[in-house]
Design brief:
two-stranded antiparallel ribbon; alpha+beta; Arc Repressor Mutant, subunit A; about 210 residues; five-stranded mixed beta sheet
Length: about 210
């Protein structure tokens, strides 16, 4: 498959030469959560054709953004992982998540969803200045659950059964909307969102999501 080239001596165009093809940034998005087998990526990307995934991974390897490695026995399976250069794409992914938040206020019946995508949204949306925060939030949806721990220097997915300070329950589009603190009261009043946890923890979550 011939690779598209803009042939412009511009950093934006050169970046798009590498990252601008369909599916490429979504492959990176999923690898930001850690190394994955080919079949894991095929499953998490839902509708990607297998030949397209193979081409995108080869392109990312060729550009030094992804590398293959083999897990230690007994697994001994090949996984794909981001290189240090590949992980530098994370702020770009996060910027897309912030810019696109208004576009997911309602969910099409054909839209796939994964709980880990909510966790990625939380990573993108929390304030960078959140000293002293240690907050565990569980998000429960009909499509699956995820739990994230927010501290002052990281946001990480943890085991879904980890005890949480707050539990947000509702359809995935409601939880996505709830990441905008200005929408929470309306979602609660409309019965599309429930929150379990103390008022102090609710305020703390609102504060870390209230970006400057």
């Amino acid at each position: 498959m011939a690779q598209r080239q803009y042939r412009q001596h511009c950093a934006i165009a050169k970046s798009l030469d590498v990252l601008g093809d369909r599916w490429t940034l979504l492959v990176v998005r999923d690898l930001l959560d850690g190394p994955k087998r080919y079949v894991d990526l095929l499953d998490s990307l839902v509708t990607i054709p297998t030949d397209t995934l193979a081409v995108r991974l080869k392109d990312l390897e060729r550009h030094g953004l992804v590398e293959r490695s083999r897990l230690d026995p007994p697994a001994a399976q090949v996984v794909y992982r981001l290189t240090e250069r590949g992980r530098e794409i994370e702020p770009i992914i996060d910027a897309y998540a912030r810019w696109g938040r208004p576009l997911i206020e309602s969910r099409s019946v054909d839209d796939a969803v994964r709980p880990e995508w909510l966790a990625r949204a939380v990573r993108a949306l929390v304030r960078p200045d959140r000293a002293g925060v240690d907050l565990t939030v569980a998000m429960r949806t009909p499509d699956g659950d995820c739990t994230v721990r927010i501290t002052e220097d990281r946001v990480e997915r943890v085991d879904p059964d980890t005890p949480a300070h707050l539990t947000l329950t509702g359809p995935v589009d409601a939880l996505a909307a709830a990441l905008d603190p200005t929408q929470v009261s309306g979602l609660l009043a409309g019965g599309r969102l429930t929150i379990e946890g103390s008022r102090n923890r609710v305020r703390q979550l609102a504060k870390v999501l209230d970006r400057p």
